[in-house]
Amino acid sequence: MSESNVSTDVVELLSAFPVADELAGRFAAAGHRLYLVGGSVRDALLGRLAGAFDLDFTTDARPAAVQKLLSGWAEAIWDTGIAFGTVGATKHGQTVEITTFRADAYDGVTRNPEVTFGDTVEGDLVRRDFTVNAMAFDLVARELVDPTGGRAALAAGVLDTPATPQESFGDDPLRMLRATRFVSQLGFTPAPRVVEAMTSMAGELARITPERVQAELSKLLTGARPRAGIELMVATGLADVVLPELPAMKLEIDEHHQHKDVFHHSLVVLDQAIDLEETPEPDLVLRLAALLHDIGKPDTRRFEEGGGVSFHHHEVVGAKMVRKRLRALRYSKEVVEDVAQLVYLHLRFHGYGTGGWTDSAVRRYVTDADHLLSRLHKLVRADCTTRNRRKANALQRTYDELERRIDRIAAEEDLRRVRPDLDGNEIMRLLGLPPGPQVGRAWKFLKELRLDRGPLEHDEAVAELIAWARSEGIEPPA
What we know:
By secondary structure, this protein is an alpha+beta fold. It folds into four domains: 1-156, Beta Polymerase, domain 2, CATH 3.30.460; 158-242, Hydrophobic Seed Protein; 275-412, no CATH class; 424-472, no CATH class. It contains 24 helices and 13 strands.
């Protein structure tokens, strides 16, 4: 990668963002330097210019001077990061962040640095996480600043640290997890010394807050190659801190080979689920469910007489484990519940057999899946990893048939909006009840009846409700 190519690539990036030149002119006129830095430079050199992203800059100007230079130019300015030397702004719909050169020191206990401003861009770059992120582009001189060999590392696809990995990870242990994320997102290979340090220092990741860990894990999972990132996370011991249930799935295969390696199987399911995604944006919920769908197997493994192995109710145990772990990682309630429900339901299809379900069972399958039905279809199909093509084809044909039945019944009954044949107001009128738990029980009874028997005539639904009420000791008004 020649110097001229480097400049051309970055200038191509900047041509799409006129704010960069505008800012450079303002800073130069005031006697300050301004550099594009970090991921923007890296991605420009990789040719990853598609899509909108924020621009990060670094400068010798102190924060107060940066605020003054932005005043009257930016459409909005914010200083929430000013304690760390960062001032944010928007212009022409573009978000920019400008940070004063840093020369921080870390206390080795938390990841909070003692903020110290630096005087050179080179000094700022050498304190960054990886050499591929430790490059800057001088917006005035139109030159690449690369004091740590980031350009060569980028060309080789190698992930290395500007300082020793021990120093870098000691300053900020989250960088170890970030390494697994870059393996997933960008396909980099970590240098041997980086892997060695990650392995020996994995326990330091416990210093990082769950929110920060979750953010990196989510970026890893939604990368282009999450399997590679996960394998690195497990191999180095980082998973023992982040997701200890993953290495626990590396069960020893019994001497008769009666069951698959659960960890390897889960990675294959993850790959196959990704192949089934239908939208350009990665589906975090589906990917989490695919990775964790068998999380309950280690706790439910039983060796049976005759050499067999069973994992009875591992979907029930797994759903509980998913809730506990994802809550600990501070995932949103919606993500936690959606992933747990997919794990809970992923085995339901196997009771379908050769199509022996009643229409009632099909309705319940759809109703229990609710808004997750499309994801459940993908998870169930991805969960077929047998090498026996005859068996695999039979399973796929059976699921095709189930989907056809769902479509048929849905067309007839509008399954996505299954409700009792009588609403809450009519239940209260017919039974003479005020709002309360009894009305809820009556509503649930009618919904179960609707799932079992399909839509009922109004008079039939009323008769069933009256009969149920009397069985519950509720005497409807005359």
